[in-house]
């Protein structure tokens, strides 16, 4: 597991390359707008920390992702002058493929079921290093830097609401917060359609949901499930989970546009939807890479 | 005219109540996203400074505005426990009227030509203080705090691009920047349809444009013209002006949505449109209160 010194060290490593996002007042609480990072998501923090600490970098890095992790690894690799190969499923929106290519990465498009296999093949062929999206200590420590910033900016914080899927973000943030301020509540947010962690915490053990069931949520970045590593952090540190409906998620997307002038993807608005139910606290807006045609439809409705 | 100590003093006064906006990397330059302020515009800075320094506050404050200044004064007045009366023209979008009322202000709707007269009548009747949108030293000093923040965050800055209309924002920002760093270029941005300051700087004297002509730009917050006070600052400090077409303005609005996940109103994107022509520098995104139906149309196009 990671500990506070890992997160402090990550903060120093990534500081020159990430946006120091402010807290924005929002209704009775605050937003931490990680959608303002250069690739549009918090994922940049973990990817930058992992790349910076990578010893075996001569043969490049490999990642598999349909979303924000792809761009984060491509961005971090370019910054460190390391070649990046990104394996993306063939249902990835063209705009995300183009954005990843624009960051200088080599992109491999494969069937959704083949992506892990293909990534592992690239690792084997090239001697490259795999950068996983959440199941990695350096990635988790990078995401945890958000927790340090929240405590620095708002010493009176009572609760932090964090979206959960693979669990990398909340593992890092919860470790930072509970290490320094055990009195601050760390609350996970999940779509009702992908509420496997809520059920796991209830059961006291990791419960697996059918991936096809989880795939139904519009929060397409929250369709993953925890690893043993992230579950160890979650089960130790997370106080509670709030689940939100699809309607509540989309309402949070339009609410952020209307009242905070922020563009969030559905996954990025899940903690904001949960915050509305909680009635306060800091909600992490985790990403902003929404299909703008979808946003246009939501705003016109 | 204002000077650096006025701006430093304003910074201390408003710091607890404004968002310390970060600089966001954007293409070859940076954005200063003032649309993330609580009322969605930089105007909050000047209004807060003016309210804080107001001696005659027992009888409340009065402002006339169809836009961001109305909400800024309402917000600042509520914070200081001072009653606010806001005179708005009858063509103000309902959403802005509701937002101003929601901040606790008393709103008077009048014909567009009657607003100054009605505001002055309220001042006379009540003994209230008028808070003008730009023709006021404390307002200008408040806006200037943006300049201090840019220099703090980016010591290597070469140019700052600032939207111009009444000139309060650029008067403050240019004073801050030229007082500390005369080598940094301060560049005004104007819609081609309201380029009276560009013409004035060319002529070396304040040139007045027909208000009906200026009213044609979609940048509805940039339809004002400088006062003698703001012109004194502009003519002394501003290096150059870049004018932008209506098409360039709307393209900047969609570019901010797509690449920076920020919602800007057309006026708020004018400096970004000018930045694209300059090829770098810091552009101030001055406001984000766009009609969301308009934004939806732009994003769907």
UniProtKB/TrEMBL annotation, chains A, B:
Entry keyword Metal-binding: no
Keywords, sorted A to Z: Lyase, Pyridoxal phosphate
Classification via PANTHER family: L-THREONINE DEHYDRATASE CATABOLIC TDCB (PTHR48078:SF6), THREONINE DEHYDRATASE, MITOCHONDRIAL-RELATED (PTHR48078)
Cofactor: pyridoxal 5'-phosphate
Protein name listed in UniProt: Threonine/serine dehydratase
Ranges for domain Tryptophan synthase beta chain-like PALP: 16-286
InterPro entries: Ser/Thr_Dehydratase, Ser/Thr_deHydtase_PyrdxlP-BS, TrpB-like_PALP, TrpB-like_PALP_sf
Phylogenetic placement of the source organism: Bacteria, Bacillati, Actinomycetota, Actinomycetes, Pseudonocardiales
């Amino acid at each position: 597991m990671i500990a506070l010194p890992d997160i402090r060290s990550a903060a120093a490593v990534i500081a020159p390359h990430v946006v120091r996002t402010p807290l924005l007042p929002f209704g009775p609480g605050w937003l931490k707008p990680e959608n303002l990072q250069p690739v549009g998501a918090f994922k940049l923090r973990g990817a930058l920390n992992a790349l910076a600490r990578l010893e075996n970098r001569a043969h490049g890095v490999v990642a598999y992702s349909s979303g924000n992790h792809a761009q984060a690894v491509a961005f971090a690799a370019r910054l460190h002058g390391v070649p990046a190969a990104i394996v993306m499923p063939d249902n990835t929106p063209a705009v995300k493929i183009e954005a990843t290519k624009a960051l200088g990465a080599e992109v491999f498009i494969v069937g959704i079921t083949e992506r892990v296999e293909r990534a592992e093949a690239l690792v084997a062929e090239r001697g490259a290093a795999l950068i996983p999206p959440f199941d990695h200590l350096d990635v988790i420590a990078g995401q945890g830097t958000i927790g340090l910033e929240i405590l620095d900016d708002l010493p009176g914080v009572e609760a932090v609401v964090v979206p959960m899927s693979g669990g990398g973000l909340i593992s890092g943030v919860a470790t930072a917060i509970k290490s320094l301020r055990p009195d601050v509540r760390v609350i996970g947010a999940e779509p009702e359609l992908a509420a496997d962690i809520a059920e796991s915490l209830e059961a006291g053990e990791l419960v697996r949901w059918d991936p096809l069931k989880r795939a139904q949520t519009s929060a397409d970045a929250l369709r993953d499930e925890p690893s043993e590593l992230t579950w160890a952090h979650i089960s130790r540190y997370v106080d509670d989970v709030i689940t939100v409906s699809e309607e509540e998620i989309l309402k949070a997307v339009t609410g952020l546009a209307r009242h905070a002038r922020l563009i969030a993807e559905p996954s990025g608005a899940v903690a904001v939807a949960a915050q509305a139910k909680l009635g306060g606290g800091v909600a992490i807006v985790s990403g902003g890479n929404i299909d703008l045609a979808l946003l246009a439809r939501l705003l016109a409705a």
